[in-house]
Amino acid sequence: MRLRNVKGSRETIADSDFVVKDEESMKGKWREKFGNDNPIHIEIGMGKGKFIIQLAKENPNINYVGVEKFSSVLVRAIEKQTEEQLPNLLFVRMEAEYIGNVFDKQEVDYIYLNFSDPWPKDRHAKRRLTSVQFLERYEGILAEDGGITFKTDNRPLFDFSLEQIDEAGWIKDNVTFDLHNSPYVEGNVMTEYEQKFSEMGNPICRVVFHPNKK
Ligand code: SAH
Fold first, then answer.
1. pLDDT one-digit tens code per residue, 10-49
2. 177 partner at 20 to 30 Å CA-CA among 12, 23, 158, 214?
3. What confidence tens digit (pLDDT) does each residue in 79-138 have?
């Protein structure tokens, strides 16, 4: 059975209190929704949620929002969160392009991009989640001292991303082409794809960067 056709995933999403419906009405109201003033961190393209669920467990004083466009994987994250009942974790099913309609200026303190779709064709470059077009959208929602961590095993996508970060005038804090054999590995939380691809022997690339808001 193809995962995308899992029966009932739309219903599971509609029924879950952990999925924010009508997400555009939440713009500027996320702290109210969580009921506290804690920082808000988001993962865009969270897949089945392994990474963000672990972060939410480890950091109860940070609020997390997992963004995912596909119901078939989102439903797996909902299943786990239904068991865990973490009060600091919510999900949104949406296309990331519209992120600026869902979070207000400076409402997000940190963004994680993990193993984003490569969109290998040149004419699809704008769809890559690290394109200058997306960086501009992120700048519109990030707090003054906000930043982004991007991980991937896809070297062409990573090289493209480093170029786009420069082109957008953002600042790189650190870069590694082999995270698991670098000092930055300490405290690293593995994503589902990271586990899969590193087991296959692929080195994991990671960049930490932030907008230049001088
Ligand atoms: N972050 C997870 C999953 C990586 S796969 C991990 O590292 O294990 C990439 C995920 O991003 C997929 O689930 C895909 O549906 C989602 N995604 C890709 N482009 C997206 C977009 N534009 N908006 C929302 N989700 C997106």
1. 899 999 999 999 999 999 999 999 999 999 999 999 999 9
2. 214
3. 999 999 999 999 999 999 999 999 999 999 999 999 999 999 999 999 999 999 999 999
**Using 50, 70 and 90 to split pLDDT, how confident is the model at 1?**
low
Distance 214 CA to ligand 1 centre (A): 31
Probe ligand 1: pick from 115, 194, 195, max atoms within 8 Å of CB? 115
Residue with tokens 């004083």: 61
Active site residue ranges: 117
Residue 37 parent element (H or E):
none
What is the DSSP track for 160-184?
Answer: HHHHHHHHTT-EEEEEES-GGGSGG
CA distance 24 to 6: 27
**114 ligand 1 Cβ < 6 A:** yes
Q: DSSP states of 114-163 as a string?
A: ES-----SGGGGGGSTTSHHHHHHHHTTEEEEEEEEEEES-HHHHHHHHH
Question: Cα angle vertex 108, ends 46, 44, to 5°?
Answer: 15
Tokens standing for residue 185: 């590995």
96 Cβ inside 6 Å of ligand 1: yes
Please tell me if the CB atom of residue 45 comes closer than 6 angstroms to any atom of ligand 1: yes
CATH classification code of 32-210 = 3.40.50.150
